[in-house]
Amino acid sequence: MKSWLIFLLVVSFTLGQEEKSLSKMDRFVSNSGQIIMLENYNLADLPGYSEKVKVVVRRATVGKDESYYLLLSKEDKYGNKTAAIAEEDLVEVGLALKSLIQQSQLQETSADYLENKFTTEDGFQIGYAKGKSITWFITLEKYGKSTILFDGFDELTMTLELAMEKIKELKNG
């Protein structure tokens, strides 16, 4: 009897961990027994210091339900590193970026190094680091950690705005 109880506890703990490790997009498209359609809409690449990030808006349809995501991916010698940002998180990322921009312009500190960032539930990060100068960054966390650096925030802001516009366009048909 005890062995069955231990077995059930281990299985339920393991399954609970797997569910938590799935991104919002992975959870949405993991429904079995339904037709799943994924449509990608390419946007302009996001130029970093020494690399470009591929930018895609994805519409995922499962049965009658639709969901939208911003996919950011970077090629690397070991494969692509990708972040999938759910539409509701994209709104939060945009608001956080505006706040980070304001903080970067107003923040006075005597620290030798400062890092200020926002992280989504799925592990995507956006922020800046301040040493002698300010460097903006995004971190594609979910499918292999990769950090991309930027001179400023203009390209990041533009990419988020274009993604939201594309999603709005797709929803309105």
List keywords for this structure.
173 residues, alpha+beta, Secreted effector protein pipB2 fold, four-stranded antiparallel beta sheet, 4 helices, 8 strands, 38% helix, elongated
Please explain how this structure is put together:
The protein has 173 residues and is of the alpha+beta class. It has one domain: 2-Layer Sandwich (Secreted effector protein pipB2 fold), CATH 3.30.2450. The chain contains 4 helices and 8 strands, in the order ααββββαββββα. The protein has helices spanning 2-21, 24-29, 87-106, 154-172, and strands at 36-47, 52-62, 65-74, 81-86, 114-119, 125-130, 134-140, 146-150. The strands form 2 sheets. The chain has a 4-stranded antiparallel beta sheet with strand order 1-2-3-4. Strands 5-6-7-8 form a 4-stranded antiparallel beta sheet, with helices on one face. Strand 6 (125-130) and strand 7 form a beta hairpin. The radius of gyration is 19 Å and the shape is elongated.
Q: Give the overall average pLDDT.
A: 83
What helical percentage do the residues reach? 25-40%
Largest sheet data:
4 strands, antiparallel
Beta-strand content estimate: 35-45%
Give me the side-by-side strand order of the main sheet: 1-2-3-4
Which structural category fits the helices and strands? alpha+beta
**Tally of distinct domains:** 1
| Spatial separation of the terminal alpha carbons | 58 Å
How many β-strands, per DSSP?
8
According to CATH, the fold-level topology is Secreted effector protein pipB2 fold
How many distinct helices? 4
Radius of gyration: 19 Å
User: What CATH architecture would you give?
Assistant: 2-Layer Sandwich
Order of SSEs: HHEEEEHEEEEH
Which regions have little confidence, pLDDT < 50, spanning 5+ residues?
Answer: 2-19
**Anisotropy-based shape:** elongated
Tell me the name of the CATH class: Alpha Beta
